[in-house]
Specification:
Number of helices: 9
Strand content: under 5%
Shape: elongated
GO molecular function, one term: DNA-binding transcription factor activity
Number of domains: 2
Keywords: DNA-binding
InterPro entries: Homeodomain-like_sf, HTH-type_TetR-like_transc_reg, HTH_TetR, Tet_transcr_reg_TetR-rel_C_sf
Number of strands: 0
Structural class: mainly alpha
Radius of gyration: 18 Å
Pfam families: TetR_N
CATH superfamily of the largest domain: Tetracycline Repressor, domain 2
Protein name: TetR/AcrR family transcriptional regulator
């Protein structure tokens, strides 16, 4: 799947992409994703179905692109004043967002079509921002945080009957920090 980045902000392609993304988000609010079709999305976005097929190839690729766009953070992670606090706040927000039904669907869409490593890049950059705030604190490294905190969180969201409890998530943050 081609990830639709690098479009000139405000350019025609960016406007068309945003119109299509908005149509997908609106339609998913109104109906079950299993009944969603490219012609419906095109009609809502005011484009032809061929525009969608030309840009994304198929519906799963479009859904993944919309999910990836939603996954990109709007702002930096919360600054609580401590490395442990920032990591706990980030992890709790991630758990909250991704364990919701839309979050799980988004993760599945991305898993089905996304370029390998792309989501790791998004998460890594957020975690690196947090680590960079505390240059004097012991630094567990982004890879350790992903392996010890993010990976079990994602596994439980996608494959278990219930996501991690917040207390267990906090324990994983402490393990990653060596506490």
């Amino acid at each position: 799947m081609a990830i639709k980045e690098g479009l000139r902000p405000g350019g025609r392609s960016a406007r068309v992409q945003e119109s299509i993304h908005s149509a997908v988000r609106e339609l998913l609010q109104e109906q079950d994703r299993a009944s969603l079709t490219v012609p419906q999305i095109a009609a809502r976005a005011g484009v032809t179905p061929s525009t969608i097929y030309r840009r994304w190839g198929d519906l799963p690729a479009l859904l993944a692109d919309v999910a990836i766009a939603r996954m990109r953070p709007d702002s930096e992670p919360a600054n609580t004043g401590s490395l442990r606090g920032d990591l706990r706040a980030w992890a709790e927000q991630y758990l909250d967002e991704m364990s919701s039904e839309p979050g799980r669907n988004m993760m599945r869409d991305i898993q089905a079509c996304a370029t390998p490593g792309y989501c790791v890049g998004i998460i890594s950059s957020q975690l690196q921002i947090i680590l960079d705030r505390y240059p004097d604190a012991p630094n567990p490294g982004v890879d350790r945080l992903i392996n010890v905190v993010v990976a079990p969180t994602v596994f439980r969201i996608l494959f278990a009957t219930a996501p991690l409890a917040v207390e267990e998530l906090y324990r994983l943050v402490d393990v990653a920090l060596g506490q």
